[in-house]
Amino acid sequence: MVDWTYDGNYSKVLVTGNKITGTHFFAVGIAIGSSVWGVENDSPLTGPATVYGNTLSGNISFPIAINGWTGGLSVTGNSVTGVTKPAKFSDHDGCSWPTQELWAKSAALSYFSPGITGSLALQSGFVNSTAGSPTYFLCTEPLLPASMTWGLNKLGISAQGTVVDIHNGVSLQYQGSDGNLVIYNTTLTSATAGWSVLWSSGGAPGGNCWPGDENLCYMSFQGDGNLVLYFNGTSYWDAGTNPGGYKLVLADQKPLLSVLNSSGQAIWTT
C-alpha cells in the first residue's frame, strides 16, 4: 500500500491470510505508506485499512514498514518470528540514516510515528525510528562479497566514481573530481555524518580530472604487477609492486587493499 492508485485512497482495504517467504531476498514484505517507497515529503496515503493475520518469514529486511499514512490503520496479529536477522543476508549501505538505524536494530516491525496521523492500532514489537523519517525501504540489497580480487591486466578504469562496493560498508572509489583513489566506510553513524575515509592515495596533479575528460585520470593493475594511477598518460602514484605483483585484493577487513605475489603473500598493503 504505497502507490497513488485510486488517488491514494486505501479505505476499507484488508490485507490478511498471506504467507510471505523470503526464500532468496525481499527488501520489504508489507509496505504501508507513501514514504516507504518514496521520500518523506510525499503526501500521505489514506485509510482506514487493516493488515491482519499474515505470516512473514525468511530473508526480508523490513517485514512490515509504515510511514506516510493518515485516516486510520490497524496492523495486528501478524507473525514475523520466522524472519532471518537482516545482517545475515543483506547490506544497507545505500540506505538513509534513519532507515539504516532500523536495519541495525533488526526491526522486523518498523514505523515512524510522526509520519502517521489518525487512529492507529499496532501489534507489540513495532520499533519507532528515533533518527528521523525513514524512507525508501527498498534500499537494502543482497549481501555483498567480503572481498574482490583482480588478476594482472584485469582492472583498468578511468576516474568516474565507484570501482566496487563490498561488505561492511567498504567502497573503493576512483574520483573524477580529484583523481584520488579512496577507500570509504559508507556506513553512517548519525543523521549528519558522511562517509569516512579509511585510506587514500592522494589526488592527481592540479587537483582534478575535470573539466573536460575524466579519462585524463586512469587506474590500472598492470601486467607487470604494479597498481598505477595516471594523469594524461603520466604516472602520479603507484604501489611499487613491479616486479612481484600478481593479484590485487580488496577486503572488508584491514589491510583493505593489498597486492599479493604469486605465493599469496602481501607485498604491498594500505
Describe the structure.
The protein is mainly beta and 270 residues long. The chain folds into 2 domains: 5-142, no CATH class; 147-269, Orthogonal Prism (Agglutinin, subunit A). It has helices spanning 34-37, 97-104; strands at residues 13-16, 19-32, 45-46, 49-52, 55-66, 69-70, 73-76, 79-83, 90-91, 109-111, 120-122, 127-128, 141-142, 147-151, 155-158, 161-166, 170-174, 181-185, 196-200, 217-221, 227-231, 234-238, 247-251, 257-260, 266-269. The strands form 7 sheets. Strands 2, 5, 8, 10 and 12 form a 5-stranded parallel β-sheet that branches. The longest helix is centred in the middle third of the chain and has 8 residues, at 97-104. The radius of gyration is 23 Å and the shape is elongated.
Which features characterize this protein?
mainly beta, 2 domains, about 5% helix, 25 strands, about 270 residues
SS element count, helices: 2
Task: Specify Rg, calculated over alpha carbons.
Answer: 23 Å
Number of strands: 25
Overall spatial form: elongated
Largest sheet: 5 strands, parallel
| Uncertain parts | none
Class derived from helix and strand content: mainly beta
H and E string: EEHEEEEEEEHEEEEEEEEEEEEEEEE
